[in-house]
Every structure is written in C-alpha cells, then in structure tokens.
Amino acid sequence: MTTQTVSARSGRAARPLTRTGRWARGAVGVAALFAASELLGRAGIVDRSYLPPASSVVTRAVELAGDTLFLQYLADTLTAWAAGLGLAIAVAVPLGLLLGSVPAVNAATRAIVEFLRPIPSVALIPLAGLLLGSGLEMKVALIVYAATWPILFNTMYGLAEVDPAGKDTLRVFGFGRLEILLRVSLPSAAPFIATGVRLAAAVALILAVGTEIISGFGDGLGIFIAQAYSVPDGARDVLAGTVWAGALGLVIDAALGGTQRRMFRWHHVRQGGTT
To answer: Where in the numbering of this chain does the ABC transmembrane type-1 domain appear (predicted)?
Structure first.
C-alpha cells in the first residue's frame, strides 16, 4: 500500500518534512553512527588501530582546527575547489546555453559530449600530471572537467523547460533570438542552473580531495589524509581528516542550498517543495 493511498483514504494530504524536521532526522542519524562507532571501538570488536572510537576521532578533528599546517592544507584544497568550480561555471553555462538553444550545434556535438562524459576524472590524473605538473593547475583542470557536466546538462534541461508562450510573445514583438534568450530563457532556466552548480560543488570537493589522495603529491587535505595513512597508527588522523572533508561538504551544500532558496523563492513556491 503506497503513501498516496493511505493519505487518500485518511482524507489528509501527506505534508513534507519541515527544514527543522529534516535537520532533526539528520542529527539522529549522525548520533546513531557516532554511537555505533564508539561502541565498536571501545568494545574491541574492531582493532582500534583500524577504527578508533568516534570520540577520539572527533577530539583529533577539533585539535586540527588549531594546527597551522593543517589549516594551510585546508586552504590549499579550498583554493583548488573554488577556482575549479568557478571555471566550470564560466565554461558550462555559456556552452549549455549554446547547445540548448541551437539544435544544430547540439546534434553536431552530441557524440563528442557522450564520449567524454563517462570518462572518470581520476583516470586523467597521470595525463594531467604529465602536462600540468603536480601543482594547483592539475587539480583545477580535473575539477573543471568533472564539475562541468552537472552544470552543462542542468542548463540544457532548464532551457528545455522554459514556457514557450513567453518566447512567442517576445518573438511577436520583434525581439531576436539573443534577446529572447537573455530576457526569458536564461531567467527561467536559472533555478536549474543553480541546482547544477550545487551538484557540481560537491563533485568539485570530491575531486579536490580525491586527486590529492590518489596523486600523492602537492598540498591539501587529501595529502594530509594520504600521509596519515602511511604512518603506523595513523587511522585517527585519516578519519579526522575525513570528518573535516565531510564537514566542508555539508557547510558548502547548506550555504548553496540556502542561497538558492532565497534567490529563487518563486520557483521553490511554484514547485511546492521544501528543499
């Protein structure tokens, strides 16, 4: 029996969770995970050298906030993340507007796009390291490659969802294709583009940290984690660094989500969502 059926029989519409409700459920999940990890570590079910108690990991994560070298690693990762995401937006939005507005260009490039999109960015690390070296440029290039796709396809999807009545109205009044794009299509597609940016921000952070871990050279949070992994009894530092990575992702997503809701409240109300 589905939720819709139950709601229909009870005569009441199912109400979505409020923001407070979602945060409360999330907090319960985090608390349950913390308790399970603490229990496994304290009971000796799992060797502490592989899974330290959660309290020990959290304590170490807090200690790292006062470590100057760690904060520099963090800044290096965030610099690569911001630069890569910014460039991805600068590339993907105009390209998405072009492909979504000109069917002939979309058809001509579809095979190339579908060929490049499935290639994982981590597979390009050796090539990027050979061409760009082991510094910021390599990380930014890989981030741009991975973060471009969510923005590109959300931009194209947003253009496809534009109400044709608005475009037809401007067309009747003699407006050209570019003016219609800027006055109607782009504003209507903006919420979809914002969603793409939000998805790309998470992808960019994953690539920033993951590239550092896999490549094993340069600076950043991933380098801290990789170096801790190679040290005996370094699991606490590895997990503490992972906690920091997860916290960064949570803060970034919350900030972008809040900004998106404030900027596109009209779209949010029209969709009847709570995200």
So the answer is: 74-256
